[in-house]
């Protein structure tokens, strides 16, 4: 399972599932605990990615506000740079 430590002890939890899904999963030999663990890990990864993307979007907006208010360092450097006219 991605993102989990195999040494971490497992603990029993109650999960309610559609009985048809459970019957089909058992008939196909699926390990419901493993499938549930993988699903939780995938959901956590989606949540973490969404949180990261929201933080990046917020930082980009802050950066855009800064540039609108102050301009960029590159613009300031170019404004102070003197160039000799070509001969």
Protein model, in words:
This protein is mainly α and 87 residues long. It has one domain. The chain is rod-shaped. The mean pLDDT is 91.
Q: Please report the number of helical segments.
A: 3
Question: Which parts are unreliable, with pLDDT below 50 for 5 consecutive residues or more?
Answer: none
Please state the CA-atom Rg, rounded to the nearest Å: 27 Å
Number of strands: 0
String of helices and strands: HHH
Question: Overall 3D geometry?
Answer: rod-shaped
Q: What characterizes the major β-sheet?
A: none
Mean pLDDT, to the nearest integer, reads 91
Taken together, the total number of domains comes to 1
Which structural class matches the secondary elements?
A: mainly alpha
Helix content: 55-70%
The rounded distance between the terminal residues' Cα atoms is 69 Å
What's this entry about, in short?
This protein has 87 residues and is mainly alpha-helical. It is built from 3 helices and no strands.
Name its key features.
87 residues; mainly alpha
Write the layout of secondary structure elements.
Elements: H1 19-27, H2 32-70, H3 73-80
């Amino acid at each position: 399972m991605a993102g989990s430590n195999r040494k971490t002890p497992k603990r029993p939890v109650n999960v309610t599932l559609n009985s048809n899904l459970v019957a089909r999963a058992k008939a196909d030999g699926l390990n419901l605990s493993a499938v549930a663990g993988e699903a939780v890990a995938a959901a956590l990864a989606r949540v973490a990615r969404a949180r990261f993307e929201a933080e990046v979007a917020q930082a980009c907006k802050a950066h855009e506000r800064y540039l609108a208010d102050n301009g960029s360092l590159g613009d300031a450097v170019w404004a102070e740079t003197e160039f000799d006219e070509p001969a």
